Amino acid sequence: MTEVIGVRFREVGTIETYSAGEEQFRRGDHVLCETQCGVEYGTVILGNYTLCSCKEENPPQAILGRATEEDAVRAAAYKSKEREALLFCRKKAEALGLDMKIISVVFSLRDDKVLFFFSADTRVDFRTLVKELGAQYQRRIELRQVGARDETRLLGGMGNCGRPLCCHAYLSEFMPVSIKMAKEQGLSLNPSSISGVCGRLMCCLKNEEEVYEFLNSKLPAVGDYATTKEGLKGEVVSVSVLNQKVKLIVNLEKEDEKELREYEVSELKFKPRRRKDEA
Fold first, then answer.
1. Distance separating alpha carbons of residues 119 and 99, to the nearest angstrom
2. What pLDDT does residue 124 have?
3. What is the pLDDT of residue 131?
4. Could you give the strand order of the β-sheet that contains 101-107, starting from the edge strand earlier in sequence?
5. Buried b (16+ CB within 10 A) or exposed e, 163-178
6. Which pTM does this prediction carry?
7. The pLDDT value given to residue 279
8. Which of 99, 107, 159, 228 is deepest in the core (most CB within 10 A)?
9. Cβ distance 168 to 152 under 8 Å?
């Protein structure tokens, strides 16, 4: 068992796990850690806890130490440098005619490295750009391409709901989202209705998935047959998941006479659906 903490390096982003050693940390403390971007200034989001499932052959990386006031000042100064570097790199890429969008920049606190994140629809030859950036900042330069979802997370924006994007506002990591979730919630499958700013399926489809699965498990499917308390049998033509109501075309006692009626699900007998966790 290992004593670990959860650290975040951006305002919103993945919470990384690091070994705390023998020190005790609380939420809000600041630490220095080695990341893919070099040495970074991070904030403790999860205080000390025990990682029981930690594999001995792959233990979490240890923190470099607590951040000092000097580290905080340096990190703040680099934030200003990052904004300047972002504008400089964008101008250079445009001057070189490179079809790429520079999204963000990260300066390592202790290493001679600057990491530029970009997106592009095609392969980009950025060797000349790297040389010019290296000459400007006298550091090792890395350019890293990101996908549409990561680009949107970094840039932020407003969603169809009128609120800040989930990925930029609070999501620690992306969860798998499928078209089945939209079907389960009875949403229109029009891409413009269920796609986010990034052009992918909206992350918020995951938020209510379990609730809709539970409610749908208590309803018949469209096309199924159900029997009413009066003994009338009918075909299900629509269901209201949240209201737990069902519309049936019932066969009346007179021959060839049918009628559309709405019932509470508790008033019907039918073969229930099987939930995913029961399959």
1. 9
2. 87
3. 93
4. 101-107, 113-119, 140-145
5. eebbbbeebeebeebe
6. 0.67
7. 45
8. 107
9. yes
